[in-house]
Amino acid sequence: MKNLTIPNKDPISFYDAIANAKHDPRKTRLKTLQPQIISRYADYKNNLTCLGKITQATYSIEEFQDLQHCYDSSTVPLNELKSHIRSIQSPISRAICPHCGINNPRTFDHHLPESIFPDFSVLSWNLIPMCDECNNTKLDKTSEANIETPVLNLYFDTLPDSERWLYAQINISAGLPEATFTLQQTPTIDPSIFNRIKHHYTTLNLFNRYADRSVEVFSEAASKASSGLTPQEFKTAITTCARSYEKRHGLNYWKVATLDAMANSTDYIESALETHSNQ
Ligand SMILES: [Zn+2]
């Protein structure tokens, strides 16, 4: 999980350009709504760190559909908005979903869902790069009942990422390693942000997804076990790999947690070296 660079271009200019790219009568209706949209964007801006408090606005069915149409139907200004958001992110955040750290972030998440807040459908601060898997998992759990506790907004919720909160444990089952993941709070992590982090992992089903993907990390390590290393040398090789991931992806990257747990598990090290020597 990684904080992202906040889009810095005037959000209402994107709304205006998208409205202008529509045909009449939708174009005129969207332009008529503009003063209300300016006020709603101001509401959003005033509640950046407590977005769950924003309430729904009332629109006619036609207005509701027009506002959704701003995002759901492709236009040149909408593509420019998406390019703007992507272009200001770091190369790593452009390549790997900042929410899960697993897949390519090909889609955008409407942080406050479009189905409830159509007025934020093309608000840059509400559009967060996300992978399909995170997006679909979040969508399945979106309802009016849980809007008050959205997943983390990676533009505005500052992550305490100099602290470690994600840990793994390795178990050997029928000769094969398995990883399980947990979160641990330290006294210096604010309890309210820790609860939001916990909610984020649960909503996006991250523990199970990491457990499934940990096979990749075990395979990567198995290739290092192949050159007759001693247990200490193998442990050092795994730790070096963990530090290299940490440098690029941060302390709470799931592969860092997995590799550190592997390096600290005597059972895993013995089992991996033994498996190799028997091959
Ligand atoms: Zn993701």
What features would you describe in this structure?
- This protein has 279 residues and is mostly helical.
- The protein contains 11 helices and 4 strands; from the N terminus they run αααααββαββααααα.
- The chain has helices at residues 11-20, 26-46, 61-72, 76-87, 91-95, 132-140, 191-203, 206-224, 231-249, 254-263, 266-277, and strands at residues 107-110, 127-130, 166-173, 176-183.
- The strands form 2 sheets. A two-stranded antiparallel sheet has the order 1-2.
- The longest helix has 21 residues, at 26-46.
- The mean pLDDT is 92.
- Residues 97, 99-100, 102-103, 130-131, 133-134 line the site of zinc ion.
How would you briefly describe this protein structure?
This protein is mainly alpha-helical and 279 residues long. The chain has helices at 11-20, 26-46, 61-72, 76-87, 91-95, 132-140, 191-203, 206-224, 231-249, 254-263, 266-277; strands at 107-110, 127-130, 166-173, 176-183.
Which key phrases capture this entry?
2 domains, 279 residues, two-stranded antiparallel ribbon, binds zinc ion, 4 strands, mainly alpha
